[in-house]
Specification:
Blueprint: E1 5-11, H1 15-25, E2 29-30, E3 34-36, E4 41-47, E5 52-58, H2 64-71, E6 76-84, H3 87-96, E7 108-109, E8 115-119, E9 129-133
Parallel strand pairs: 1-5, 6-9
Antiparallel strand pairs: 1-6, 2-4, 3-4, 4-5, 7-8, 8-9
Bound molecules: cobalt (II) ion (CO).
């Protein structure tokens, strides 16, 4: 069902420091910060030859990233995103298998303008999993 790794998302407590680290220390191609008010995050995309890294920084008062950073003050891997061809078919198959879908269970439009869903980390070896239809 799952295809390519679309991105690894890393929550960071200091966005400018993280941009500097990836751009200047690691020598990666780092994009401009994008505010995503619907998701409560500012996102920076880093393009690697085989996948992307997404830096996530809290945006707004009730950002879903704020609690994660409170528990992980240095930042950390927040989720991984796998590509699927048909997000509704993937959702229904996973629900039938007993997996929990976060939120309403309906896809939202994600940071790349494509439908996304998040799966409960307790059902996926402690990892928050995002599915993106490509
Ligand atoms: Co993501």
């Amino acid at each position: 069902m799952i295809g390519r790794l679309n991105h690894v998302a890393i929550a960071v407590p200091d966005l400018e420091a993280a941009i500097d680290l990836y751009r200047n220390t690691l020598g990666a191609k780092v994009g401009a910060p994008q505010d995503e008010p619907d998701h409560g995050v500012t996102v920076v995309f880093i393009t690697l030859p085989n996948t992307k890294i997404e830096l996530l920084f809290p945006l707004g008062a009730d950002s879903p990233i704020a609690g994660f950073l409170a528990k992980n003050p240095a930042g950390g891997i927040h989720h991984i995103c796998y590509e699927v061809d048909d997000i509704l078919a993937a959702r229904d198959q996973l629900k039938d298998a007993g997996a929990r879908i976060l939120g309403t269970g309906e896809p939202k439009i994600g940071a790349h303008g494509k439908p996304v869903l998040f799966l409960h980390p307790k059902d996926f070896t402690g990892t928050l999993v995002e599915l993106e239809q490509v």
